[in-house]
Amino acid sequence: MSSDSKPKGAGRISADWAAVLVAAVLVALAAFGVLPTIPFLVK
Predict the structure, then answer these.
(1) Model pTM?
(2) What keywords is this UniProt entry annotated with (predicted)?
(3) CA distance 36 to 18
């Protein structure tokens, strides 16, 4: 494995942090009621 396989600098984010960011956005949208609900799951 080459030494340049790891990202350098603070400008890049890892896949883990990207997934956390996407999940946080989805949770925020769901909390504000922006996302559609699934009728048969809502009781």
Answers:
(1) 0.58
(2) Membrane, Transmembrane, Transmembrane helix
(3) 23
